[in-house]
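Researcher: I'm preparing a figure for a lab meeting and need a structural model of a single chain. I don't have an experimental structure, so a prediction will have to do for now. The sequence is pasted below. Please return the structure as C-alpha cells so I can convert it later.
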Amino acid sequence: MARADEIKNKAAEERKAMQAAEAKRTRNIQLIGGVVILAIVAAIISLAVWARGEADTANTPVAPLEEFVTDAALPKGAVAELGYGLQINAAPGAPTFALYEDFQCPACASFEATGFSTVLESANRGEIELFIHPMIFLDRNPSAKNSSLRATMAFGCAADQDKSLEYHSGVFTLQPGDGSGWTDNQLLDLAQTIGIEGENFTDFESCFTSQKYRDWARNSQLAASLRGVPGTPGAFLNDQLIDSSILNDSATLQNLISAANN
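Model: Understood. Here is the structure written out cell by cell.
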C-alpha cells in the first residue's frame, strides 16, 4: 500500500512540475510576443515620424543666404559676376537688360504672355543683351513646397541642354493658379515636352534630382536682394530700374530700349 502511495505521489509531483514548466513556457511565449508587438509598433511609429519629418523637410522654406556660395555649380550661360543671371544672347556693346522673375509669380506669368516677347525680339535683333535672373522669394510660404527653387533648378538644367527659353515659357504656362506649385514629375515631364529626349533627358533628370543648381538659385536670389529689386517682374536696362508700368506696355518698352541704343 505504501508503495502504491509513493508511486501516486511521485506521479502527482511530476504532473505538477510539468504544469509549472508549461506555465513558464506560456509566459515566455507571451512575453516574447509582447516584445515583438511592441517592437513592431515602435517601428511603425518611427517610420511615420520619419516620413512626416521628410515631408516637413521637403516643404520647409530654404533659408536665404547671407553670403554667396562661391563654389556653386552654374548652368550654361550663367554669369556670377553679373548677379548670377542666365545670359540669353550675346550682343557685345549693347545695353544689358536684366529681368528678375520668380516662377511662382502670377504677374511674371502675365508678363511672359505679353511684354516678354518685346524683350526677346529686341534681344534677337541685338538691341539688348538679355539676362534672366530667377528669384525664389515666394518659397517663404511653406505651402509653396519650394516650387520656385525646384523650378529654377530645372530651368538651369534645361539651359545646359540649350532649352532655357523653351523651359522658361513652359514653366509659366504650367503655373497653377492656386499657388500649389509644381510636382517634380511635372517639371521632369516638361523637359520631355519641350524636346529634351534620350541621353539629354537622362542628363537633365540627373541634374535636377541631384539638385545640382540649388546654390546657383540661392545665389541668384541673394544677388537680386542686394541689388534692391523691388518686386517681380522687375527689370533693369543697364543700371536703370524700369518702372513696372512700362513692362507690359510693349510700345513704351520698345521706345525705351531704342533710346538706350542711341
